[in-house]
Amino acid sequence: MRLNQLSLRTAGVIDHIEALSTHDAIAQRLGELGFVPGEPVKVIAFGPLGGDPMAVEIGFTRFALRRSEAHRIVLRDNTAATAPSCAAQPHEQADPAAPSPATSTADSSSRQAPVAGPPA
Amino acid sequence: MTDLPPLRVALVGNPNCGKTAIFNQLTGSRQKVANYAGVTVERKAGRLVTPAGRRVQVLDLPGTYSLAATSPDEAVTRDVCRGVYKGEPAPDLLVSVVAATNLRLHLRFMLELRQLGRPMIVVLNMIDAISKQGLTIDIPRLQAELGVPVVTAVGIKRGGGQNILAALDAPPPPPPTPLPEGTDLHAEVRRLLALCVARTSERKQLFEDKLDRWVLHPVWGMLILFVLLFIMFQAVFSWAQPFMDMLDNGMKSLGDHVGALLPDGVLRSLVVDGIIAGAGTVIVFLPQILILFLWILALEESGYLPRAAFMLDKLMASAGLSGRSFIPLLSSFACAVPGIMSTRTIQNPRDRMVTIMIAPLMTCSARLPVYALLIGAFIPARHIAGLFNLQGLVLFGLYAAGILSALVVARVLKRRATTDEHPLLLELPNYRLPGLQSLSIELWQRARIFLSRVGTIIVTLSVLMWALSSFPAPPAGATGPAIDYSLAGRIGHLMLPFFQFIGFNWQICVALIPGLAAREVAVSALATVYSVGASEADAASQLAPLLSAQWSLATAFSLLAWYVYAPQCFSTLAVIRRETGSWRLVWISTAYLFGMAYAASFLAYHITRLISG
Lengths: 120, 613
What we know:
Structural class of chain A: alpha+beta
Mean pLDDT of chain A: 72
Radius of gyration of chain B: 28 Å
Low-confidence stretches of chain B: none
Oligomer: heterodimer
Helix content of chain B: 55-70%
Low-confidence stretches of chain A: 80-120
Strand content of chain B: 5-15%
């Protein structure tokens, strides 16, 4: 599943970014904008004409992406397309880079998780 | 201490992290600050003296997400940081500005900078806002982990840069040791966040969440966008009216007084017909221009503009452009010169070129006096459906005509373009309530720019116009109005054969020429020509009734249509030359705008004549 297939106000976790060519500047820039494996993302709006572009929330930032750009972002399989909007995946456990397992409290939505992890 | 060479520091950071606010704070400058990515597109230098007496040169660099630059403005930052910018040694100290509200994104770029191994300090800007997010940052811990000094700042608050000044007085920090090559910087950011950031209160639903549901909504969002733009144009007419009447009366009584004081003759004609009638007619439009800017500035500061770009991206895409072109085009409503400069944030070179070419079609504020004069003279101040001011509606239509033409031109220019991707990747910043203080400072600056234009270019051209329309005096025994014998009269009559097909009279023809230097001058030139030609001396500030008596509606519409496309002012052409480095583009854009202006005027003139009989 890819980010451009995610439905409105649904959260997903990034698996990897797929570069379309060896020098895909857009794929590289996506990484620099924080679209990296393990990060939770959420679709907050679709554009008025043909649902393009889409507004995506990642961490505390929101970005407008065209669907062709979002297509490069591959989500993890356990991201169910029908997942209710606020039930975020407890992604930290699955993420080897995360320093400590987050205690997923009921309210821990996807956006705060990476910042709000308890101090080690 | 003062005999030390000045310390050279560079402010570097992500777009919209508040570098320019800090720059202004530190140096007392008033560079433009707004709430969207890409306000600063070139390096700006300023100076300051620290409390301990150390001289510091500060560079404000365009924001970038990474040192792997993808657009011209980002390349400037990359080159300065790496010390390869032409004529600019590497800065002694990098000041990495990080928005405390967006650490996850901004710390990554800070780490990338740290990898350069140059002396640096980290500034946590907007530190006042993080408590609202329910977070605390362990700053000593962060400093220890990074191995570079970390200070806090509030760029938009007076005195919010004190910690930075103190850090500049401290002995320069040793360069940090870069992390091993190939370290995953994102993973390092996560490690730092887990170590140094703690949540102290439950996360509240962000204001952005609630507002964006409406603002980015496919239906409501479009409605909001149109209402905002619509009110803007209505306001230009309705709110400004009382102030304009005041100025208008002031100018008229000034003309009367001065006219009565001076003896009849050349001097009186120069002052009354040349300066007061000319420059005075333009000054009257100050309230309208300020209201237009008030809207633009408030929208810029609120963080709404990138969202408008989001809503309109598909429309821009249909013309072959990306939403990225939206902000440069919107700035062009103020003036095409900064608009064209801000195209440096556009990555795709062809997109950038097309945006530069169509930027002059956005109605700049200098055209507002021309529109306002003609609309005021020819369109009745009626209300339609008890709500819409007809004059505002016409103004809205003129702006819309410019925008639609721009989309068509872009489409044509991109016709043969390859189907390469036009990246959008636009950050939607947090909303911010526009500050009264910064709004009034910016408005005051706008007023100053406008008044100094009136005081310099416009007065000069008005006097020139006056001289051209007064000399040479008619030969003895000449019949007909004196002005027909003047230089202006002759030039106008010379141009007439070409322009009469679009309904212009010779007075308009003459006024077009100084309008190339500054578009408002078309108004003052008309005022001067008519004032010199008028028999009574009090023609000053009475241009509108005079025009509505002498021109046909078709002529008025024709001139309005002309100014939608209006052959550009010289400063626009100069900036196109500078930004593209190509004379060819300058000629192409001059020619196509001239052609479109002529065609549109021709249509407007003949269609109006057909309809009005």
